[in-house]
Hints:
Blueprint: H1 10-17, H2 23-26, H3 41-67, E1 85-87, E2 90-94, H4 101-110, E3 114-115, H5 121-131, E4 136-137, E5 140-141, E6 149-150, E7 162-163, E8 168-171, E9 176-179, E10 186-192
Parallel strand pairs: 4-10, 7-9
Antiparallel strand pairs: 1-2, 2-10, 3-10, 4-8, 5-6, 8-9
Amino acid sequence: MHSEDCSIGENSSSHLEKGEQSNATSSYFATYHEGSIQVPIPCAVMNVVIIMILIIALISLSVGKYNCPDPLSDTPVSQCSNDWIQYQMKCYFISSMKDTWTMAQRFCSKHKATLVVIDSEEEMIFLKQYVDKMKYWIGLKNETSQTWKWSNSNEFSNWFNMTKPETCPFLNSTDVSSADCQKPLHWICNKPSSS
C-alpha cells in the first residue's frame, strides 16, 4: 500500500457528491453517506488494527503494574528465607525445637546469623508477640561474671532489666530472665535482612 492509498482526496469526495462514481473507486471506498469523510477501506482497517494494538498494550501495562512491587512502597518485599520473619532491617528465626544456649548459637551460625541481638524496646515488643509463655534463648551472655555481651560481641548497655541474672538470658512474653546455659530452651536467631 502506498502513502497515496490512505489519502483522502477532495476530488474523490466531490466526484461522489456529484454522483460520478467510477468503477475503479467504487470497490476501493466504502459507500458514501452525506456528511461523512470517505477513507479508503485498507486504511480504515489498518487504523483499527493499530488502535486495538495500542489498547491491548495499555491494558497489559496497567495489569502488570499491579503484579510488580512498587519500589517506592512503604511495605518492602521480604528479603528473608522462608522460615524467617522480617522486621525492620533484620530477619528472625523463631525455633520450634529446644537446645542448649551453645547449640542454639551454633544453629544460628550455620545460617549466617547469631542468637538474637535486641537493639531497642520496639524490637523487644515485636519479639514478645512471637514467644508467648515459652522461653527463648537470646544472644546475651555473661561468661566471666563481669560484662554482659551480645553474641555480636557488643557490650550490653543495660537498657532493660533482667530477673535472675545467671549466665544465659532468655526472653519470654513478660520479661528477660536467665538460666543455666545447659538447659534446653527454644531460641531466636537474627541476621541483617540483606544477607
